[in-house]
Amino acid sequence: MTYRYVPEDVADGASAGLFDLVCSEVQQTTDARCAAVVVIGGASGSGYSIAGSFDAQLLLPDILRKMADVLERQLARRRQ
């Protein structure tokens, strides 16, 4: 069985923009082309933010798919 998280709030919902400041701080502090922050069950709710150039953001879907695949394999091994 695969666990699927359903966030309480998603983009354009009540938490839209809530994590932008944190994400911008991560991007600036690391001098990154792009940064993404995901918050699950935080004090202010759940959501995500992305900061960076459009060209860098275009890379995110592929990176996130690869991350999800690796994470699912790692978690499956831990459940055994």
Question: What features would you highlight for this structure?
Answer:
80 residues; two-stranded antiparallel sheet; alpha+beta
Q: What does it look like?
A:
With about 80 residues, the chain is of the alpha+beta class. It has one domain. About 45% of the residues lie in helices and about 20% in strands. The protein has 3 helices and 2 strands; from the N terminus they run αββαα. Strands 1-2 form a two-stranded antiparallel ribbon. It is globular and about 40 Å long.
How do the strands and helices of this protein lay out in sequence?
Layout: H1 20-30, E1 34-42, E2 45-52, H2 54-57, H3 60-79
Antiparallel strand pairs: 1-2
Outline of the structure:
With 80 residues, this protein is an alpha+beta fold. It has helices at residues 20-30, 54-57, 60-79; strands at residues 34-42, 45-52.
Overall pLDDT level: 85
Q: Are there runs of 5+ residues with pLDDT below 50, and where?
A: none
Q: How far do the termini sit from each other?
A: 12 Å
> Could you describe the largest sheet, including whether it forms a barrel?
2 strands, antiparallel
- What is the number of domains? 1
Topology, number of strands: 2
Count up the helices. Answer: 3
Task: Give the overall shape.
Answer: globular
Main β-sheet, spatial strand arrangement: 1-2
Radius of gyration: 14 Å
Strand residue percentage: 15-25%
SSE sequence, one letter per element: HEEHH
- Fraction of residues in helix: 40-55%
Structural class by sheet pairing and helices: alpha+beta
